[in-house]
Amino acid sequence: MILSRNRRSLGLLKIGLVVASVALFLATALVYVSQTRQQAFLTATIRSSGWVAYQAQLEFVKVQAEFAKLSIVPSVHGVHALMLRLEILRSRLPLLYDSDEGRVLSDVVDTRGPTQIFEVRLDQVIDDVARLDPEDGDAAAELRALSAELEPLGEALQTILMQSVAYNQEIFRRERALAQRPGAVPLVLLFISGACLAAVLILQSRRDRIRLGEIGEAQAALAAVEENLRAVIQAVPACVVVIDPDTDHVSFFNPSAATLVSPSLDDPAWPRFVKAVRGAAGEPDTRRWGALTMGYARGPGDIISLRGSVGSVLWERRQQQLIVLVDTSRVRNAELQVMQAAKLATLGEMATAIAHELNQPLAVIKMAVANARRLLDPLPGGEPVAAKLERISAQVDRAKRITDQVRRYGRMPTEHLLPFSLRHAVELAAGFVAEQFRAANIALSIETSAPAELLVFGEQTMFEQVIVNVLINARDAFEAQDGEAQDGEAPRDDTDHQSDAGSRESGVGDREGGAGDRAVRVSIGLEEGRAVVLVQDNAGGVPPEMLERLFEPFATTKSTEKGTGLGLSLARSVIRDMNGTIVVENRGGGACFAITLPTTQASATQDAA
Prior knowledge:
Elements: H1 2-72, H2 76-92, H3 100-108, H4 112-131, H5 139-149, H6 151-180, H7 185-235, E1 239-243, E2 250-253, H8 255-260, H9 269-281, E3 290-299, E4 302-315, E5 318-327, H10 329-376, H11 383-409, E6 418-421, H12 422-439, E7 443-448, E8 455-458, H13 460-487, E9 519-527, E10 530-537, H14 567-577, E11 581-587, E12 590-598, H15 600-608
Parallel strand pairs: 7-9
Antiparallel strand pairs: 1-2, 1-5, 3-4, 4-5, 6-8, 9-10, 10-12, 11-12
Helix pairs in contact: 1-2, 1-3, 1-5, 1-6, 1-7, 2-4, 10-11, 12-13, 13-14
Keywords: ATP-binding, Kinase, Membrane, Nucleotide-binding, Phosphoprotein, Transferase, Transmembrane, Transmembrane helix, Two-component regulatory system
GO molecular function, one term: kinase activity
Catalytic activity: ATP + protein L-histidine = ADP + protein N-phospho-L-histidine
């Protein structure tokens, strides 16, 4: 744009110079012609000035002739003729100084002074002639006297005529001298100067074209560099935004920025984004770069972490501000996952240590109960005490099973994928949460159509943790449903949870009274040679807006006190490591998690293929 503007300006300048040169050339020619014409007019005027003096002298001679004739033969007719000649002479005198020819003549000889003196005298003579009586005997003498008074006027007119003739002769001599010189020389010189000016303009134009060519090549190279830079910026997986520091108007943004904020500059999200950047940057010095760390709310509840820098750049030949930001939300999520994993690892170690330590007193209690029963058997009436001892022994066994489950769940997984029984792993995981389900009055059942020897590849402990996580989520969903019922609706289940502990020692799959409305069913089967585990509940299901994000890190419907949102994300990673899939859908009034895994037979077939 600037190159075309410069070319247009230079073109207009060249046209202006050419037009000015032509105009000056024509003006000079016109001035030359005008001066020539004026000189010719002046020459004609000078020549006419001699004719004016000659006419005045001629009229004076005629007046004197009339005086002489009238003085010899006086008559009325002669007097009238004399007065006419005197009037004509009187009219000729002002022409000697008050006309164009007279003014030219005045530059040669003084015509005003003598003529004006005789104008007054001539007026008196005219008056005297008008009063003259031709019949009077003294008329001739008076006429001769009046004629004598006008003699000095004749001498003055003769002097003026002679000087005018001499001046005209000098003018004629000079004109002849000038006529011998070539009159075309000024015009030739004028044409030569114009040609030189045109040559200078042509040479300058050629030089300008060469320089414009060089500038065009440089600007083309610069445009190519800018285009490559724009392509690089467009491909950078970071948010790049250019704003005007004076108006905060967004001048440029790349696709990453469009994905982060909005693809339209008219969207109100852009002013909000610029305001957030300004607030996080704290109005830094635009002459140098500064680090920037901020949080940006793309929508209600959608807050991301951004990190980058802001500084001044020359963009589109104007000083503007460049903002470069990278979405660090995933990095932050990974850091939180690591922290949570460290906490969970610590808790697992503590739980394993506690379970190990509890085994010792439980073993002592078991031995004490066995000894007490042996001592009580010979004694009569010891049945009530024996029942109590039996109950104590059952509770010790129950506690031992719990500690064994905790120790197994906290065991460090291996890095090798080994075959294990799918049904056995599901039963162990269900047994780990069975007591919690009984306490929550939730019926947990396991249905299987697959053989007991069905094996899958993986790390059994990690797979058990996946099943436990899904079951715990189902229990929490029922608790959340109860919380909503307490806030507005009546709870679905009014069963008393304080039943006798001994009645809860039945195996997995037992249903307590009133638990039919709160049920979780685990089914194991085979579909097209792959093992399928379904975990179905009737706790209301997953909110539709969370179905697609449920397996993302920190995506959860629970409060921060109840969950971290990492369990299902880790579960998906475990199932992927086993070459399987895990999905969720809402059906049957609740959520259904479907886990699909290759069996050992399918794996062997794939290896053979």
